[in-house]
Every structure is written in C-alpha cells, then in structure tokens.
Amino acid sequence: MTLRCLIVDDSQLYLDAARALLEREGIDVAGVASRSAEALLQAEALRPDVILVDIVLGEESGLDLVRRLSEDRRAAGAALILISTHTEADFSALIEESPAAAFIPKPELSAEAIRRALNGGAAGDRV
C-alpha cells in the first residue's frame, strides 16, 4: 500500500527536497502547505494517511496545528508526525504532550522513518 502524505513546512526549499526524497522512496506526496490555514484545507480535501508538520512554522506553531488537526477531525484517520531541524530534546515535553504519533528530525526523514513511526515506534523509541 502506498502511503499518501501531506507535508507542512514554512520553507519552500525543504518542501521541495522532502517531496522529492519521499516520492523517490515510494511515498505519494499528495500535497504541501506552508501555513496552518492551508494545511487545514489540504488535510480535509486530500485525506492523507500521514501529515508531517514542522514544529516551527515561521510565526505559527506546528504544535498548535497538530492539536487543531487532531481536535477538529480535518485529519480524520491521518497519523500526525512532527518534524524539526531541532533535536527532540529541544521540545521533548511539548512533543510528549502533543497528539502527534511521532517525531522525526528533518535530517533523518525518509520513507523508512515514517513507516517505522507508523508501525508503533514507542515514545522512548521516537524516530
């Protein structure tokens, strides 16, 4: 089964690079968004299997976006995964409190990392 993914990041350069990488590795990147409002609309319209959300979205908070996606059901059924250039330790308490299924550092993003996170990477084993 091919995973359908939405990537939310405020850097167009990163969006392009992540899309190219994940598509090369067999993930269908159904859409990208750079702001929360756009991400909410895309999540509802595209119904992806997984949504990757940067913790820091410019002046917006990816953590707030993940909460909104979780609470208002626009992400119905999508796994929410936080990503960041920062280490997990930089945001550990906030990540643990979030409804995100996992955290993946941007330098470690790959189809395998996403699949591992979706297949039950426990909190202590966050990717």
What does the model show?
- The protein is of the alpha/beta class.
- The chain has one domain: Response regulator (Rossmann fold).
- Helices cover about 40% and strands about 25% of the residues.
- It has helices at about 10-25, 35-45, 60-70, 90-95, 110-120, and strands spanning about 5-10, 30-35, 50-55, 55, 60, 80-85, 100-105.
- It has a five-stranded parallel β-sheet with strand order 2-1-3-6-7, with helices on both faces.
- Helix 2 runs parallel beside helix 3 (about 60-70).
Keywords:
5-stranded parallel beta sheet; disordered C terminus; alpha/beta; 5 helices; 127 residues; globular; two-stranded antiparallel ribbon; Rossmann fold; 7 strands
What's the count of strands? 7
Could you state the order of secondary-structure elements as H and E? EHEHEEEHEHEH
Per DSSP, the total helix count is 5
Strand content: 15-25%
- Dominant shape: globular
Main beta sheet strand tally, sense and closure: 5 strands, parallel
Reconstruct the topology from this structure:
Blueprint: E1 4-8, H1 12-24, E2 28-33, H2 36-46, E3 50-54, E4 56-57, E5 60-61, H3 62-71, E6 79-84, H4 92-97, E7 102-105, H5 111-118
Parallel strand pairs: 1-2, 1-3, 3-6, 6-7
Antiparallel strand pairs: 4-5
Helix pairs in contact: 2-3
